[in-house]
Amino acid sequence: MRRSLYAVGAVAALGAATVAAPAAATGMTDTASLSVLHAVPDLTVDVYVNGDLTLDDFTPGELAGPLALPAGDYELAVTPPTPARP
Predict the structure, then answer these.
(1) Measuring CA to CA, which residue among 44, 37, 36, 26 is closest to residue 67?
(2) What does the domain layout of the chain look like in residue ranges?
(3) How many whole angstroms separate alpha carbon 44 and alpha carbon 22?
(4) Mapped to the 3 state alphabet, what secondary structure does the chain carry?
(5) 69 phi/psi in degrees, rounded to 5
(6) Could you report the per-residue pLDDT of 33-72, keeping only the tens digit for each?
(7) Measured between alpha carbons, how far is 63 from 65 in angstroms, rounded to an integer?
(8) Which residues of 27-53 are buried (b: 16+ CB within 10 A; e: fewer)?
(9) CB neighbours (10 Å) of residue 3?
């Protein structure tokens, strides 16, 4: 469980910083880009943005993005991967 909490903090912090920085740096407030690098060894996760599954079975070493998103505040959640349905 401790390992999962570290993963949540690392991915959430990266995502929040990446979305906010480009908009603030350029003075634009209508769009943002999000790139997420998974750097927690041996831990596959699902990443949700505002409750929608955005990165399914996200594996260590994988880089996702840039994803174009409307500028704003987002709720990120990192969870264990959802088991495949038969």
Answers:
(1) 36
(2) 2-79
(3) 28
(4) CHHHHHHHHHHHHHHHHHHHHHHHHHCCCCEEEEEEECCCCCCCEEEEECCEEEEEEECCCCEEEEEEEECCCCCEEEECCCCCCC
(5) -135, 150
(6) 889 999 999 999 999 999 999 999 999 999 999 988 888 8
(7) 7
(8) eeeeebebebebebeebebbbbbeeee
(9) 11
Does the structure show a pLDDT above 60 at 25? no
Q: Are 54 and 76 a contacting pair, CB within 8 Å?
A: no
Task: Dihedral sign for Cα 14, 16, 70, 40, please.
Answer: positive
